Amino acid sequence: MPNRRFADGEVVMGRWPGSVLYYEVQVTSYDDVSHLYTVKYKDGTELELKESDIRLQSSFKHRKSQSSSSSPSRRSSSRSRSRSPGRPAKGRRRSSSQSRERKDDKKKTTQESSIALLVLVLFKPSENNTRRYNGEPESTERNDTSRVTLEQKLKPDLETERVLEQYSLRPRKEEKKKEEIYSEKKIFETIKTIEKASSKTKELEFGGRIGTFVLIFFLPATVFYLLLMCKQDDPSLMNFPPPLPALESLWEARVFGVFLLWFFLQALFYLLPVGKVVEGLPLSNGRKLHYRINGFYAFVLTAAAIGALLYFEFELHYLYDHFMQFAVSAAAFSMALSIYLYIRSLKAPEEELAPGGNSGYFVYDFFTGHELNPRIGSFDLKYFCELRPGLIGWVVINLAMLLAEMKIHNQSMPSLSMILVNSFQLLYVVDALWNEEAILTTMDITHDGFGFMLAFGDLVWVPFVYSLQAFYLVGHPTAISWPVAAAITILNCIGYYVFRSANSQKNSFRRNPADPKLAYLKFIPTATGKGLLVTGWWGFVRHPNYLGDIIMALAWSLPCGFNHILPYFYVIYFICLLVHREARDEHHCKQKYGLAWERYCQRVPYRIFPYIY
Question: Where along the chain is composition biased (Low complexity) (predicted)?
């Protein structure tokens, strides 16, 4: 195996692909299989180069010093020659050279004029031909020789111009300039082509094109299966498949209208000029988008609206009675939104496309999201859907399930299990809305495009699958004792503490690593200028926020008892999701941080579960 010539972190000169230009780059990693160096340019562009395309900076500086050292001698020799008594003065030489140039120009002009006369003779119309001058036909010989119009004098024939251009004796300075401009344009187009190719998504997730095509149908089918199973008296996996309802019963125009009203009500709350405006992380072109942080205000206004409906005795358990129709309406709306997002992304500039959804394959880009931050004016569609309709809707659905349980079972108070589920999940949602700014540093905002995956996840999966425990308890009430409730509450508090404190450390460090409050945190510096935390929660495991998520998910399911596995679907799904995300994060961080990430993994060996995984 050939030895490496350049070390990681070394600053060298790298040749830009398709050109002869060298730029200052920093070596980030080396592939022993392909023998390619991954280098990073000053603008943040990362490319893979051969060793032959990389040179040391000293070689460029040496050439420059040689040229500069030789120039003084030439200048001194020219000065000595100019002082020679036998040679004319500089000004005289300059004037004589100018006169020679003027003579040469006169000769060339004379030659061109003679060629022009020759061309006029060669291409003079025949006297026997019939020509039209000023719109009148002339056929006689006398008229052909005597009538030379003003147009013929002032406007040379097109064929004459062509011959003049072909036989021009002028210096080709203009042609050289055109050739230089053309070559520069060609190089620029080549660079743009390379940049466009490098921005393409090369590594496909979720099983590539086939996997994403299957998921487009599998995800809605999973949601409907879970809801149908919860409606059964015995929601055991042995009772698969559940009885399917009639197709016409799955759609109701009134339900779809209520869903649209909910969606646009949240959009109205989003547009209210309340809350602070903050900047997001820099995009690939260096630009920062602005976001209005008013999610918690939207939650308070929603709570006031729901309270008003209950005051006027609106039957909120209408959600429970038409739960399947609401899920179908949300799925249809998310599909329509995904189609709109993909169509508009086809006109988006290259720098506005998502790094993970720019593969060039229709199905894959449609699923993962082609455009990174689709906006209608200042209305950010992805950021709005991430927290508002689905997350706040999850709390409203839980409340509707609580009221439905009281009505169906003739209870004056909801069950302790239902209270725990509602309380735990309400805390989670309020925490997300209160710390809304932290979402701007997540992969969903910075990396993933807005396509079917996020649209369906935000509008269907979150409100209708995350509320599965409350929906299950309506038809399958479970009684738990106060000591058990206290133990489950402690477990949820532990998970929440790990989740919140880990995320707070990460977000604070990303925003301002030089904050004196974070002086106790130690980190490993990277070539990107960012640091990898090796103390606090991030020195305990690599993804402590995922550990807190899983602990909370378990606490949400335990109030449903152990009679069926269905309420624990959320825990199983959450573990699978976070393991997938962790693997994606590992791959992304290894590419981004290189050797620094390997050092971090050696320092923090456990990924999610300490001493296990």
Answer: 66-75
